Amino acid sequence: MTSAAVEQDNLFIPLIDFAPFRGGSAADKKAVANDIVNGFRNAGFIYLKNHGISPAAVASVFGQSAKFFQLPQDQKDKLAWYSAEANRGYTAHGREKVSMADVEDVDALRESNPDLKESLEIGRDDEPQFPNMWPPQEGESQWPTEFRKETMGFFEQCKEMHRLVMSSIAVGLGIGETWFDGFTSDGDNTLRLLHYPAVSREVFEKNVGQVRAGEHTDYGSMTLLFQDARGGLQVESPNGNFVDATPIPDTIVVNAGDLMARWSNDYIKSTKHRVVEPPNKTSEYPARYSIAYFCNPNFTSKIEAIPGTVAEGVQKYEPIISGEYLVQRLTATY
Ligand SMILES: O=C(O)CCC(=O)C(=O)O
Ligand SMILES: [Fe+2]
């Protein structure tokens, strides 16, 4: 059953029950798949419930994330994000400024309005040339081992989720449910733990345009976003206004990225979003945590228009190698 998660200013983001896709008849699957494709086509965003990742698993990774960000600043700084090719490591507030602006403007933006956030990017753990930046094992504490085990376990669950949602898109497009399987097998994805520190309302009042994360689109095929109950995520409506994407417990917000839009000849939308001051005003805002899992087609895959998405034979984009596209985009951001 599909209802509205968000319905405002011509932005309709469906709340879709994913269970019938995971375990239903062919007709059930097709119905869910159609809703998913329509959501990506119209809004670029959907919410999924009964998605198959347990609330306990999600809660546990949120707990690990909170422990990570509690580490002393100098310890986190030693784990710094080190290259676009690797896209792994820790980023302090204000270093990254995702924006639609030209590369030259990024520095200016960074100085005027640093994002109020910090993040840790974690990639697949089997590429020795691009190591993950794990907190070191020190003394008696077993926590670093636990942190690595939990986050990588979650990484694998999200990798499977990516395969399933891509499979639903294939069913919705009528190209056969395994069409994308050869593109999701490597797991060239990034798990990003995000922490938006507690901040007083004054900061938003004194600085016009102050946000927790600037408006941007995501780069890859899709993003699985797990948000806590704090609120502040907004999605751009077809009229160009930002609308609250209110947290709904135990759901995943899934949005299509720029490479998905390109791959589908813009049949699917990659929609701008941002994180702002929470909607319920108080003098102090508590910390907000979110977990974004950025999914990408295998980095070695050639991305060219998906069959059936090229209207009247007009293919808008040249084929491109997935990994090259992503490195280009990341290089322009950091
Ligand atoms: O924290 C959020 O809710 C959104 C994060 C996001 O959009 C991103 O990291 O790309
Ligand atoms: Fe995003």
Automatic annotation (TrEMBL):
Q: Which organism is it from?
A: Microthyrium microscopicum
Highest rank taxon of the organism = Eukaryota
Output this protein's name: Clavaminate synthase-like protein
GO BP annotation list? small molecule biosynthetic process
Q: Family per UniProt?
A: Belongs to the iron/ascorbate-dependent oxidoreductase family.
Query: Per the database record, which ranges form the Fe2OG dioxygenase domain?
Result: 187-297
Q: Where is this region: Disordered?
A: 123-142
Which Gene3D superfamilies does this UniProt record tie to the protein? B-lactam Antibiotic, Isopenicillin N Synthase, Chain
